[in-house]
Amino acid sequence: MISTKGGQRQAELLDAAERVLTTRGNADASLRDFAAAAGVRIGHLQHYFPTRADLIRAVLERALQRSLERLSSALGPVEERGEQPALTRLETTSLFEILLAEQDDPSCVRLFVEVWAIAMSDESTAAVVRDFYTGYVGHVADLVACVRPDLDRSRSLAVAATVVSLVEGAAIVHSTVGVGSSAEARSEIIRAAVGLVHGS
Question: Are 187 and 195 spatial neighbours (Cβ–Cβ below 8 Å)?
Fold first, then answer.
C-alpha cells in the first residue's frame, strides 16, 4: 500500500511529467529529463516508475480518471444506474459537451499529442496507449449499452470505437489547425456522436 506521503510524491512526479510533455513538446524525453523536471534523482523516479512506459501509463490513467470523474459528477457512473431509465438524448448531449470542453484546454490536448508522438517510435509506450484507448472505448461502450441494451457487446464496442475516433479526431484538428473550433462545428460533432450512441 502506498503511504499518503508516497501518493503525494507520485502526484508531484506525474505533474512534472505532464509539464515536460505539454510545455517542452519533446517526444524524445527520457526518464532523466522527467526526473530533472521534478527536481529528483533518476533513481527516485524509478522507485515509483521503473520505465518511461510505466510513467506514461500513469500519466494517461490519471488523465482518463479526471475525465471519468467529470462525467460521473454530471450524471453518476453509468454502471450504477440500476433500474433508472436509459440515458436520454439530452443527458448524452451533456456528456459529450463535457468531453469536448476538455479540448478548450491546450495542455490537455498537447499531452495526448506528445504521448502519441512517443508511441510512434517506442513500442512499449504504444502498448500503453493501446491499453488506454481500449479502456476508454470500453467506458463509452458501457454508455452505449445503457442506451441500447439490445446491442451485443461486440456491436456496442464498435459504436464506441467510432465515437472515440470522432471525438479524438476533432480534438486533433481543433487544437492543431483550428478547424472545427466554431460553436456550430462543435454542435455538429456532438449531434453526430449522440446519433451514434442512440442509433439515430
Answer: no
Q: Output the pLDDT for position 180.
A: 59
CB-count exposure of residue 69 (10 Å: 0-12, 13-18, 19+): exposed
Query: What is 1-50's CATH number?
Result: 1.10.10.60
CA dist 160 and 165 (Å) reads: 9
Q: Helix, strand, or coil here: 162?
A: helix
* CATH number for region 56-198: 1.10.357.10
Q: What is the pLDDT of residue 181?
A: 66
Domain with CATH 1.10.10.60 in the chain: 1-50
**Interval 15-33: pLDDT, tens:** 999 998 888 766 668 899 9
Q: What is the pTM of this model?
A: 0.76
Full DSSP string of 96-137: HHHHHHGGG-HHHHHHHHHHHHHHHH-HHHHHHHHHHHHHHH
Q: Locate cell 502506498: which residue?
A: 2
Question: How many whole angstroms separate alpha carbon 133 and alpha carbon 64?
Answer: 10
pLDDT of residue 155: 98
